[in-house]
Amino acid sequence: QVQLVESGGGLVQSGGSLRLSCVASGSISSFYFMGMGWYRQAPGKQRESVARISSVGSTNYADSVKGRFTISRDNAKMTIYLQMNSLKPEDTAVYFCNTDPQRANYWGQGTQVTVSS
Asked: Above 80 in pLDDT, residue 84?
């Protein structure tokens, strides 16, 4: 069983920054070889992919966050990060981490990000 715990969300003004963290634990000896991703779900909308990072560090971003968000990973800490700069009200959502591709039983509680205008 794998547990993914997100943290770092909060309330921030438009233009501000936040850094999200996702720590993996459990039977995850293969973390080093797993692609990971950040996803978000805004009220009334479907969950969407925000950023992905491969096992070797290649990254990919949704068009809506390119140039503003940066995904990274620390394999020794079994942690992935999402640095979010120049936040906009439309970034308001619950942010989740999961593997890439997603695994249904790995979803955690997420962390709420609210951007005020």
From this structure: yes
